Amino acid sequence: MIRLVAALALGIALAVLPAPSATAACHVVRQEEWVNGQLHIYWVKHCESSSQTGTTPVGTLPPRDSGWDAACVRTAITLGVDPATFCDVPPGAAPPSVTPGLVARALRRIDLPASELSVQPPNGRTLVNFDTNFYTENGEFTRTVTLLGQRVELRIWPARYGWRFGDGQQRWTTTPGDAYPHLEVTHRYLRKGRVSPSVDTTYAAQFRVNGGPWRDVNGTVTIPGTPQRLRVVTARPVLVGG
């Protein structure tokens, strides 16, 4: 099972073949074989008689791509269930129900992007008692995963931004801020020194199964941002010639 999960996480197709029942005079042995990057699993029936012992392969069906994806496999492992029953539905079987809670668990295992923080003034320096401007650029995007053998589309967007200014102060907004001169998210540092501001992004999402209606995903996912280096300095007025 460890080999199967590792193979699927790397996107290697898996062929699963049904096991036939052994007859009274025979026994069935499971065998595995790697062929062109695919793991083939098949069963071999060994039959014994008074005159000879032979090996006859049975159930040799063509390999079938299971369609599993890494997000589904990671979710199955976290829930402690078999990925074979969680991520794949055999041909002809009735598809199970994909619930908002199930999609929420899968959403937490998708690689969601962190927001990149922009600071004005630029070049990593700002002034004490100055309205330092912060903003980011992040919008709606989509992802597609396979859950319980079904195609699930996700529509994901930033619902909130958590601004951490590096001096112990923070602020939450529903907007990503904006560049100068449209100052939406600003902060005044009261003393000089070095700080590390960052912005966390809380994502919300909707999903639909096999092209059906859109439904809300339960809960949200917060992705922490990477801190930026910022030096707060003081300035003295100096008269210059005109």
TrEMBL record:
The keyword Signal applies. Residues 158-202 form the PKD domain. Keywords: Signal. Residues 1-24 form the signal peptide. This is PKD domain-containing protein. It comes from Nocardioides aquiterrae.
